[in-house]
Amino acid sequence: MVFTPCMEKKLDASSTDSSLIIDSIQLMPNYSKKEFHKVVGGQTTRLTATAYSIQMQQLDMQSLLETNTLVIKKIELKTVLFDAYRNNTLPLQKINKPSLQTIVKEIPFYVSIDTIQVTDGTIKFEVYNPGETTTGKIFISNVNGSITGIQNDTLLYTSNSKIEANLMGDLMNQGKLKEQYSFPLKDTNVLFYCSGSITAMPLSSFNPILEQAKHLSIKSGQIDAASFSFIAYENFSSGTMVFNYHDLKVEQVGTKNDDGYLKGKLKTFLLNKFIISDSNPSKKGITRTTVLQMPNNPHRYFLNYATQTILNGVELSVKGK
Predict the structure, then answer these.
(1) What are the pLDDT digits (tens) for 146-184?
(2) What CA–CA distance (Å, rounded) separates 226 from 219?
(3) Quick one: which of 5, 113, 222, 258 is 20 to 30 A from 234 by CA?
(4) CA 271/CA 215 separation, integer angstroms
């Protein structure tokens, strides 16, 4: 068994108002970061999930016990932590990942959850890339939002049936990140809509992940505002991004002890002089709108698809495209 669920302290159920309160629950991997990937084989995200309070409202306990159906009006998750780690030095298994719609439809019993409310959440992601000695890290704190419309009776689906997620949090404890997702339930292939925004924050906040992923360090620069919107299809995503920033300067990562130190200095000069655009709008006051189009990697889940689309848009924006 790779993961073990653990419930702590107490569980309170009330037949009067059909509520269920779980004081604390945790999903823990049974193996360390180093051992986990050897056991599962290849690249797989190692996830630790903790919710310090779960409250279910209008839980149909009779249907759950008698007919194995899960019907809940609202689930409140308070003080939630998702801690993910991925070792990208291992081979990626060539297994196509199902869409969120397919995952929901394949739940082996009837499920209907009107709303999941998240309060005071934290999402951490750590990645170990090939050729690196340290990991890259990124996190979102103070996550609040809701997920609505989860149900898997395909006979009840209409053209308006969809799972929607609206989330907001503090990106690297600096700017506010807002994201909205919509997943049409009648579709079985990968199809979802995503839009969002980022408020003002220092660009150097991304160095903990950028230095490992791109071998670049941001020395100066400020995001003024960013917005994006795209549709993710089976094979590619399509949309636009406006990424407003100013005073961007980057440096090729390296130390004076490295053989490639002088090459790094040369690359830094070339990047800032000819490749990187230091601001948007430009000095002429022209605001660039970047076209988003990212191929889908069918061997990764939708969150990676969305993240890669957004990151690719940022990269193209700072290159003046």
Answers:
(1) 999 999 999 999 999 999 999 999 999 999 999 999 999
(2) 20
(3) 113
(4) 12
Of 146, 172, 198, the last residue of a domain is 172
Residues 67, 144, single domain; the answer is: yes
Q: Angle 194-232-308 (CA atoms, 0-180°, nearest 5)?
A: 80
145 — phi, psi (to 5°)?
Answer: 165, -165
State the residue range of the domain holding 311.
190-321
* Structural contact between residues 201 and 221, judged by C-beta atoms closer than 8 angstroms: no
- The structural domain count of the chain equals 2
* 208 sits in which H/E element: helix 207-213
User: What one-character DSSP code corresponds to residue 131?
Assistant: T
Q: Looking at the structure, do residues 271 and 124 belong to the same domain, yes or no?
A: no
Matching residue, tokens 């969120």: 100
| Other Cβ atoms closer than 10 A to 94 | 8
Structure-block tokens of residue 279: 């601001």
Q: Which residues contact 250 (CB under 8 A, 6 or more apart)?
A: 216, 217, 218, 219, 268, 271, 272, 276
| Number of residues that this document lists for the chain | 321
- Determine the pLDDT at residue 271: 62
Query: Strand 162-171 and strand 236-252: pairing?
Result: unpaired
